[in-house]
Fold these 4 entries.
Entry 1:
Amino acid sequence: MSVLMVNDWVDFSEMKGLLEITDGNLASHSNALEKAGYIEVKKEFVGKKPKTSYRVTQSGRQAFNEHLDALEKLLGR
């Protein structure tokens, strides 16, 4: 989520590289975030190759900010 908070769209390969996770791990987490309505997933073809990209939704942005606020309270800030 933090990657998506500071970028408009991030494609699968870039996200995988930034997070240093497996294809399956990224697919699993992105699926859960999409089902929760926190991210939007765009699937398209560039030439003949499939390309999957992600961006945060407004509700995802709000939920992430609320999560950060809760962590800060927990840490006593």
Entry 2:
Amino acid sequence: MGHNHEHTHTHEFKSLNRAFTAGIALNVAFVVVEFAVGFASGSVGLISDAGHNLSDVASLALAMIAFRLARVHASTRYTYGFKKSTVLVSLLNAIILLIAVGMIIAESIGKIIRPEEVEGGVIAWVAAVGVVINAFTAWLFMRDREKDLNVRGAYLHMAADALVSVGVVISGIVIAHTQWYVLDPIIGLIIAAVIIHATWSLLSDSIRLSLDGVPSGVIISDIESAIKSVEGVDGCHHLHIWAISTTETALTSHVVISDTAQMETIKRKIKDVLRTKSITHATLEFETTECTETDDAVIQ
């Protein structure tokens, strides 16, 4: 069982490592081309989309670094290793995206005030390439998006970019036929709105985990009920749940039991139940009913 478990983790690591590497390489190449064409054609839509794609490259690179750091073994100075770096990177990625949004909004507003002529046909062709690259990169992360916050962030960014590129294609076609140049910065503002929408949950989840809050999807009352449902458990208190990384959740709790002779059996059952709730690190302190009543009397 241990060998199979390790083999599964090794396979997942190699698969995600390839996904990050391919995604970064494809997007770096596309950013260079898109920015060059956008600059040459004077399209703020292409330039802003290239800027956002550049932030995605940075996000993918940071996520890959955190993904690798999470596998660093624990030491006497870092007893959890560098697992928390995955949470810090997800927060940094969200901040990078918000900075990119600010730049896009400022540039788009300037172009609305002072519209400039752009080549709609060129915009449409370059953005069409972006649809393919972004959609393919999003597909690379689709299978594992629910397993890790950084992978989810990568998937959301690339899926949003694919949709944004579709919008740029449409605007390019319209501009080519109507010369309605103000549509280009309007698309820039739409891009900003899409990014904010896609980033909001990533930002809120990252802030919560950075503050050692309860991870999204974990309901503390359900965990408490699950512990109390174990035979031999009379109650629990001082329950704390937090994220060690974007994929691992920890718990500490005081557990009240009547029969100390069954303590090891109860502990094993509780940890088995917690694993079904995706809590992989549990530290339990056991108390007898008599001790709890004494503590309550002292507090009163």
Entry 3:
Amino acid sequence: MPELPEVETTRRGIAPHLEGQRVTRVVVRERRLRWPIPEDLDARLSGQRIQCVERRAKYLLIQAESGTLIGHLGMSGNLRLVPVGTPVAKHEHVDIELESGLALRYTDPRRFGALLWSHDPLHHELLAKLGPEPLTAAFDGERLFQQSRGRSMAVKPFIMDNAVVVGVGNIYATEALFAAGIDPRREAGSVSRARYVTLAEEIKRILAYAIERGGTTLRDFIGGDGQPGYFQQELFAYGRGGEFCKVCGTTLREVKLGQRASVYCPKCQR
């Protein structure tokens, strides 16, 4: 599933080609995504000039003059730019055609993504209760420490809770916990303030670095420029269960936490 760095990579790839452009037509070939695409999306968006492309958590916000298109890539979706009239392949569900002659094409084999319209996106039911962005000053180790008090759940699903902080998905939670030396199975409420400070710093560092590296190529992900991400080549723990730890040589172990596979080093993480 595309995570925050992949979504931010997509945003950075498409924004320069969308901002300031007027939409000439919206072609919807398949409306049945996770939630149905609005029947009147073409009428709402056509003729509108796109003002900016922003991101909130894993949602892309394409702001036009009279409203905002909220996009989510689901498990396998991607957005890329193609010339208007480019032949359509299977699973290419939507084209947003621009006056420049380019079209923003949405592809989603599993159809778990979303394209919704809102006049107040930050108060939309999908976004209203989200926690702070991890790469802002609103998120730090003190917040993690305070939010974790009295929590018996494991620390990994705790930092993946979007009410605590947004965008720390399975890949980056695994990597950040490895870098901070924290066992992902440890109770969230038992982690000290000092260790949460370190963990928050590692979350920020790893997410920022992954964005600069273009995200992580996993199965279907392709950025807005049509290129894959490269962070996967540098993973220390995620997806490496049974392999040797790059730091100490110990065999990495894999467990299930919150229905998700989690890999850790029994020597480096405690």
Entry 4:
Amino acid sequence: MAEGYRVKDYGQPVKRYVQTMDLKDDASLIAEYRRRHSEQEAWREVLDGIREVGILDMQIFILGTRLVMIVETPLDFDWDTAMARLATLPRQQEWEDYMAMFQQCREGATSDEKWQMMEPMFHLYDR
């Protein structure tokens, strides 16, 4: 997307988490994974749960089989606490089990087990 995308203004400082995961290398599965994440197909209970644990925004980007997820949260957000809570919310594990057919992951994995946190290694340094 050469024109870029707009970043939300939350009216407060936020922190950003970046994670990655790979999909199975099957064009039809990838197409179905995309469809199931569309606004019409994503499960409302799961979207509500993501917001309920304090996540302000979540975006997933794709290139081939590689997914990159960007999560924005308030500064006081605690990732481990939020993920533990998210795993207990309605339909969350059902969604994870449902999505596993597309993902390179072990059976029964939670979202936090599937997605691997990426380490920042560069930024446009201040001078």
